[in-house]
Amino acid sequence: MSPFEGCVRISNREAVLFISYDGLTDPLGSSQIIPYLESIVRHSSPLRVLSFEKLDRFDSQGAEIGRRLESTGIRWTPLEFTRGGKLSKIIDLIRMYLIAVTLQWRHGYSVIHCRSYQAGQVGWLLKRLFGAKMIFDMRGLWVDERVDGGLWLQRRWVDRMAYRIYKSIEVSLLTTSDHVVALTNQVVPELRRLAPKMTGKVTVIPCCADFGHFAILTPGERAVARKRLGLSPDAFLLSYLGSLGTWYMLDEMLSFFVDAAASRADVNLLVITKDWEESHWERLRALGGEAFASRVRVVSASREEVPALIGCSDVMLSFIRPTYSKIASSPTKLAEAYACGVPSICNRGVGDVDAQTEALEAGVVLDPSDSDDVRCAIERLDNIRAIGGVDLRVRANKSLDLSVAAELYRDVYRSVH
């Protein structure tokens, strides 16, 4: 018997169907999706979630997450995520259609909340067939991300066709939705340009952080965290949190560290990731960092361990490729760093990062390819560190705490009920 069987519980009182191709047992599920669901259910109860879960993660975390959801009155229909190539995605999409239509037929949802494009396609069908209201929580310009990230190569006719089809679907989703949720103010004019017949309201809800989970360390906690990393209390610690592939300018961040380490004997780098490989050490050496390799710490951390690791650092690095699709991106890692009182050094041209950094006085925005920009930031490292602390956390709390997102989602639901 599949571990996913028997998870559907029937009710005639469910009002909202939340569809996500991302799993609740994924790291993103715990940090972003579930907290939002818990806020949504308070003003749009009852609620059912349809999600796709990796089998290994579901086996280890599914029961715990199921109990958490049940305690708040959220019903959950988890489906197994099919691993493989393009065919597996088509299979999953077909299953998403079939299960969602079945659930809609049984319960008659008044609102379909669609997280990203695959779920949006299903929500579009349910709106057409059953007249439900549709919230398109787009999360970014997914179609163009596939191209910008090199996943859909435009020299291949199959990928060109997929791009054209999905750009057409994108327009339909934007035009049909009763409410669109975007991550950045920067992308809103572009959405209006892409879908000039769009009539639904757009609400911007940036990626927020749980300020209860990400907190400023006490001096004692900071000392303990640094000791575990083998760092002295007075070391200057740059940190990076997250994945290393596709969008993230690892070479530029390593190069920044190398230049800083060459300038100052106290500079160290902490990389918090599950993606580090031997090839990354080779990239560090190729960038002239062999002499500074002993000052690099690489840690694979659970969500529970991340706040202490961020909190014991002085400045967070976040360099993301500033492609067209990234005007729609909101880096969660920055909200988490600010919650811990840690300022940032970011690159220009990513979502609302430029404006957000200035408004919150949260750090420095630069061009990593500009040697003068890099040199200036390195010379100001102590000044950037001084920006951090309780005041930064207080400033960020007003716009980046999960409670802010919860209030915005409440307004979204009020607009469609």
Describe the structure.
The protein is of the alpha/beta class. The protein has two domains: 16-208 and 402-416, 3-Layer(aba) Sandwich (Rossmann fold), CATH 3.40.50.2000; 219-400, Glycogen Phosphorylase B (Rossmann fold, 3-Layer(aba) Sandwich), CATH 3.40.50.2000. The protein has 17 helices and 13 strands. The protein has helices at 27-44, 55-71, 86-107, 116-130, 142-148, 157-176, 188-194, 219-228, 250-263, 278-286, 306-311, 332-339, 353-360, 371-379, 381-387, 390-400, 402-416; strands at residues 16-20, 47-53, 74-80, 111-115, 133-137, 179-182, 201-204, 236-241, 267-272, 296-299, 315-318, 344-347, 363-366. It has a seven-stranded parallel beta sheet, with helices on both faces. Strand 6, helix 7 and strand 7 (201-204) form a beta-alpha-beta unit. The longest helix is centred in the N-terminal third of the chain and has 22 residues, at 86-107. Residues 64-207 form the Glycosyltransferase subfamily 4-like N-terminal domain. This is Glycosyltransferase subfamily 4-like N-terminal domain-containing protein. Keywords: Glycosyltransferase, Transferase.
